[in-house]
Design a protein that fits this description.
GO molecular function, one term: FMN binding
Cofactor: FMN
Keywords: Flavoprotein, FMN, NADP, Oxidoreductase
Number of strands: 13
CATH architecture: Alpha-Beta Barrel
Protein name: NADH:flavin oxidoreductase
InterPro entries: Aldolase_TIM, OxRdtase_FMN_N, YqjM-like
CATH superfamily: Aldolase class I
Helix content: 25-40%
Shape: globular
Largest sheet: 7 strands, parallel
CATH topology: TIM Barrel
Structural class: alpha/beta
Radius of gyration: 18 Å
Length: 302
């Protein structure tokens, strides 16, 4: 137990005091309504985790914009003021149960909306996603070779509209009483696709170079910070290494993390891989991301 003593020590992120270092990572459960509203089932689920002693809960992916493709499963939304009441109910209930709570916010699924989805599939470039042979985790081999449709590349005005929608969603989350947001920038979903040389082949200011590929992530952090103020927690989840030859490496992941820190991120939440390297997203063995986590931690001061 000596090795686990620090696990139960308090930790501070920005000005947020968390009672221990046990954090619940965001996992999709489809507990919400089809149009993105809160349910009693979702509230009860998260309250149970808070009562169990979790210090920090990160609510699963929450969409800031409704108009593009998303899975037909029930995804939480923050694109409408009408969703505020349910969001507030969740924040209040988890706080009463003794935990802090952050919402993972996203702009959509990008080319990863290859599973049954509603709406138009859009991405930085027209590069489809797929499960490559030999990369499916245990018991999911039946998915190998599955390919999505080529997405439509987003226009610059559409990207700018997304940035504004993201900021508005973050403001709603703050107004509902949550302690912060986490930007979903991993696993090859839309925001992550802008970071990746594999999926971002644009030649405008949102691609074409490392600086261009960072632009969306940087804008989301800086524009959101300008609206929510200095004390609201802003985190960013990345894949440390995409684990495909055409994607970014762990060294690139370190560089991305440093840029996110400079842009105002309070913490980095590490994951690994993307659907083309699905076995790194859903590893069959324990501790598979420890080396990546160590490398990213060494690259930043947050």
């Amino acid at each position: 137990m000596e090795k686990l003593e620090r696990l139960f020590e308090p930790i501070r992120i920005n000005k947020l005091e968390i009672k221990n270092r046990v954090a619940y990572a965001p996992t999709g459960k489809a507990h919400f309504t089809k149009d993105g509203y809160m349910t009693d089932q979702a509230i009860c689920y998260y309250v149970a985790r808070a009562k169990g002693g979790t210090g920090l809960i990160i609510v699963e992916v929450c969409l800031a914009i409704e108009k593009y493709a998303r899975p037909v499963r029930r995804i939480l939304g923050c694109w409408d003021d009408a969703q505020l009441g349910g969001l507030k109910d969740l924040a209040d209930a988890v706080h009463m149960a003794g935990a802090k709570i952050i919402v993972q916010e996203t702009l959509g699924f990008g080319s990863q909306a290859m599973f049954p989805a509603e709406g138009e599939v859009v991405a930085p470039s027209d590069v489809p996603s797929g499960i490559r042979p030999g990369t499916a985790p245990r018991n999911l081999q039946y998915m190998e070779g599955f390919m999505g449709i080529p997405p439509r590349p987003l226009t610059r005005p559409e990207i700018e509209e997304m940035e504004e929608a993201f900021v508005a969603g973050a403001e709603r989350i703050q107004k509902a009483g949550f302690d912060g947001i986490e930007i979903h920038g991993c696993h090859g979903y839309l925001i992550a696709e802008f970071l990746s040389p594999y999926s971002n082949r644009r030649q405008d200011e949102y691609g074409g170079s490392f600086e261009g590929r960072m632009r969306l992530a940087r804008n989301l952090l800086q524009k959101t910070r300008a609206k929510v103020g200095p004390d609201f927690v802003l985190g960013f989840r990345i894949s440390g290494d995409e684990h495909i030859a055409e994607g970014y490496t762990l060294e690139d992941g370190q560089r991305i993390a440093r840029e996110l820190e400079r842009a105002g991120a309070d913490y980095i939440h590490l994951s690994s891989g993307r659907y083309e390297a699905w076995n790194h997203m859903l590893p069959d063995r324990e501790g598979s991301m420890l080396d990546e986590a160590k490398a990213i931690k060494q690259a930043v001061q947050i």
